[in-house]
Amino acid sequence: MKKLILKEKFSFKKPFRITDENGTELYQIESNMLGTKVSIVDMNGQEVALIEPKGVVSFRFVLTVEGDEPIIIKHKQGLVKSQYEIECQGIEVIGDFWGLNFAIVRNGEKIGAIKNRLGRYEIEVNQETCEFVVLATVVAITYINTANAGVIGGIAGGAAAGAR
After folding, report:
1. Which long-range contacts (CB under 8 A, 24 or more apart) does 93-96 make?
2. Are 27 and 48 in contact (CB under 8 A)?
3. Residue 114 CB-half CA count within 13 A
C-alpha cells in the first residue's frame, strides 16, 4: 500500500502539492484561471490526470487518466448530503464525501481511500496501477464539494449556485 499526503487545505485558486509519507513532493494539482479544468501533474511536469465538466452548466465531470477509460462522476445534491454516481466499469465510491473519509472500490476490491486526519488528508493507494484513478477521483470529489460550498466558481458553474 502506498500513502499520499495532502497537508494543505484544498484550494483550487493556487496550485498545491501531494507528497509521500516522507514529505517528497510527487504531484501538483493545478487549475486554469476560470477553474474549469483541474490537472494532476507529476513533478516532471507531465499531466497524469485531467478533470473537466461535461457541458457548460454541469453536474457531470469527466476524469481522464492516461491508460484508463474515462470516468464520469455525476453529482446529485440531496436534502442532507451529496451523492455521487460513478460511470465507469466497476468503480464505486463508498463513505462520507463531505468529511473526506471514503473508499474507492473497483470490481469489489478496494483500490484506495482518503481519510481526514485533523486537517491532514491521507490518500491510500492499494493497487499501484490504480494510483492515478484513485488520486483523480479524490481530487474530483473534493473539487465538486469545494465548488458547491461556494469557495470557488467555474467548474461546477450553475451546479454550485443551484446547490446553495
Report:
1. 93/137, 93/141
2. yes
3. 30
pTM above 0.85, yes or no: no
CA-CA-CA-CA dihedral for 97, 99, 101, 104, to nearest 10 = 10
Position of cell 497524469? 48
Cα→Cα distances 12→15, 50, 85, 93, 140, Å:
7, 14, 23, 22, 11
Class of domain 2-156: mainly beta
Instruction: Give the CA radius of gyration of the chain.
Output: 14
Number of neighbours of residue 11 by Cβ within 10 angstroms: 13
Which tens digits make up the pLDDT trace of 110-156?
999 999 887 788 999 999 889 999 998 888 887 777 766 664 443 33
